[in-house]
Amino acid sequence: MIKCLLHGSLRKDFDLIKNVHNFFTNNGIEVVAPKMSEIVGIEEGFVKMNSDPSLDKRITEIIYLQNISKLGSNGFSYYVNPRGRVGLSCAYELAFDQLTDTRTIFMEQLKDLPIYVPQNSVFEPDKLVDYIHEYGNYPAPIIPKNEIKIHKMIQGMLLPNSLIAVGAIIEYNSKKCRKGQERDCMFVRTHKWPDPKTGENRWSIVGGKVRRGERLGSALEREVLEETGLKGQIGEHIETFDEIKTGGYYINGILRVFHDRKVYVDSKKVKLNDEAEEYAWMPCSEALKNLNFEPNARKIVELVA
Questions:
Q1: Model pTM?
Q2: Overall domain count for the chain
Q3: 3-state secondary structure 166-180
C-alpha cells in the first residue's frame, strides 16, 4: 500500500485537510499522519486535537516528524496548500522532507518559500489518485536540463552520507539469437552524466537511487519501467562497487555504491522518460567501441563484454 503524510494548516484549512484525508483513504492511500479527530484547542496558533499524543506541542511535532520513517519506499508527503502557501510549521516539516530525500507533492504551486521544487510535483488530490491508480506509484520528479545544477546542490545536502544506486544492463531476450552470439543491450545518453570537461552528455545504463525501505530487485524493476516503459525480469548480479573516485562525479564525504545486475526484456519498444534523450540497442562489445560512456557504466559494460 502507498503511504503518505499530510501537511497543512489545521487552523486555517482543517475541513479541507480532513476531506483530502478521507479522499486518499477511500482510494487506497494510507495516511500515516495526522490522525484526524476533533479539535480541542488552539494555543499560539498551534492546533491541538484529541488524538495528539502529548499536551506539549514540541513533542507532538517531533512524533509527527518521526512518521517519515514509516513511509517506506512508496511513501510521499502531500502538502495541502491552498493559495500556494504552507506557513511556518509546514516550512519546518518541508525542510525535514528535503533533508531526508522524501518525495514532496503539493496541491498548488508553492508561493511563500524560496525553495526548490522539481517539476511534476503539483497535483490536485483527484489527479494524484488517478495517476497512482494508473501507474501504481506516486509521480516521479522531473529534472529538466536547466535545473540539474540546483538539483545536485539539494542532493549534496542530504543527511545520509551513503547512497545506494542500482543499474541495469537491459538485455533483449531474443529467441533468434544463436548460441554464443552476443545479445543486444540497451544504453541511454543522459544529462545525468555530463562530461566534466566538455559538457557533452555521456552514455550510461538505466538506473537510479534506491528508495527508503526498498529492496534492490524492486528498485531495479521500478527504474527500468520508469525510464524505458519496459517490464523486465531480474537476472544475474554483475558487480557491486564504490563510485570511481577519478570518474569526475565523486563528491567527497558521500559514499555512493552501485549495485548492477542484468535485466531481461522481451520487447524493444522503448518509451523514454525525461531522464534520457536517446537510446541505442547493441552488443556490449560494440557499445564500448562506439559510445562515450561515463566511467562507472563503462566498468560494468566491460565486465559484461
A1: 0.63
A2: 2
A3: EEEEEEECCCCCCCC
